[in-house]
């Protein structure tokens, strides 16, 4: 993407889950808009591919492990500090009745989708205070607003992300740290087959039929929304759970 507007010029960002899907789309857009970006992901190969194409600082990280989170923030510190944190890494169970979801799956989903947001925010806030403010963007989901059957644990974890986002927003607003969430509908990511149970033309048609605009979300959709929330154009926007969903939640 050609760098034409530099809406994030001089900003330093961390994006988790940056080696594929929504996170990759966001990282690409942020770099194109002039930001220095730390790309964090479990996939070393994925990070090598993306950073080989766009640059940035890759960090192989499990966002549930404090030592890995520390490495992400050390990489940002080496770039000069932190202005933007995008907590995008996520995990889900396959679409099925809640009685079939294991305790271990529940713990992993809440560790990745909820606790990791808290752990990263606790490290980000002191760095943002030094900069006089900052932006935290958490990837939630329409699942936290209008749940579908078969994803009870995932749905509830994203509801927790939305509440966590709003709670942090009101607490941190006096320090000019804005906190918002993105709520995509099912999209073209590596977890799509898990949301649907199986990725078939019939299941895609079923899902798309519930979206008024008639298609799934894309990394570009999420990148555009994240760019707005991260930019100074949104300096009065905090505590919002922005539906990037083609009308799904109407």
Question: Could you walk me through the main structural features you see in this protein, from its secondary elements to its overall organization?
Answer:
The chain has 250 residues and is of the alpha/beta class. It has one domain (12-243): NAD(P)-binding Rossmann-like Domain (Rossmann fold, 3-Layer(aba) Sandwich). It contains eight helices and seven strands, in the order βαβαβαβαβαβαααβ. It has helices spanning 21-32, 44-54, 66-79, 103-131, 152-172, 192-196, 201-208, 219-230; strands at 12-16, 36-41, 57-60, 84-87, 134-139, 177-184, 241-244. Strands 3-2-1-4-5-6-7 form a seven-stranded parallel beta sheet, sandwiched between helices. α1 (21-32) packs across α8 (219-230), α3 packs parallel to α4 (103-131) and α4 packs parallel to α5 (152-172). The two termini are 32 Å apart.
Looking at this protein, list some descriptive labels.
8 helices, 7 strands, 250 residues, 45% helix, Rossmann fold, seven-stranded parallel sheet, alpha/beta
What does this entry show, briefly?
By secondary structure, this protein is of the alpha/beta class.
Low-confidence stretches: none
Name of the CATH superfamily: NAD(P)-binding Rossmann-like Domain
Proportion of residues in helical segments: 40-55%
Shape label: globular
The name of the CATH topology is Rossmann fold
Strand content: 5-15%
| Tally of helical segments | 8
Compressed to H and E, one letter per element, the order equals: EHEHEHEHEHEHHHE
Structural class: alpha/beta
Order of strands, main sheet, comes to: 3-2-1-4-5-6-7
- Averaged pLDDT, please? 94
The end-to-end distance, rounded to whole angstroms, is 32 Å
The overall number of domains is 1
């Amino acid at each position: 993407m050609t760098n034409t507007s530099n809406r994030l010029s001089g900003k330093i960002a961390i994006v988790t889950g940056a080696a594929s899907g929504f996170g990759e789309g966001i990282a690409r857009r942020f770099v194109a808009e002039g930001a220095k970006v730390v790309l964090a992901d479990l996939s070393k190969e994925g990070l090598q591919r993306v950073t080989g194409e766009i640059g940035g600082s890759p960090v192989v990280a499990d966002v549930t492990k404090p030592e890995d989170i520390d490495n992400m923030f050390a990489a940002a510190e080496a770039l000069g500090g932190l202005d933007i944190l995008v907590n995008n890494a996520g995990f889900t169970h396959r679409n099925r009745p809640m009685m079939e979801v294991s305790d271990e799956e529940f713990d992993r989903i809440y560790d990745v989708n909820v606790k990791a947001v808290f752990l990263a925010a606790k490290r980000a806030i002191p760095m943002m205070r030094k900069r006089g403010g900052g932006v935290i963007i958490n990837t939630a989901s329409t699942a936290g607003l209008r749940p579908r059957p078969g994803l009870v644990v995932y749905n509830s974890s994203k509801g927790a992300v939305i509440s966590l986002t709003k709670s942090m927003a009101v607490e941190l607003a006096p320090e000019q740290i804005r906190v918002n969430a993105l709520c995509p509908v099912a999209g073209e990511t590596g977890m799509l087959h898990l949301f649907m149970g199986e990725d078939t033309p019939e299941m895609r048609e079923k899902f798309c039929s519930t979206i008024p605009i008639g298609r799934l979300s894309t990394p570009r959709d999420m990148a555009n929304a994240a760019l707005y929330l991260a930019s100074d154009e949104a300096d009065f926007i905090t505590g919002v759970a922005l539906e990037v969903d083609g009308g799904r939640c109407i």
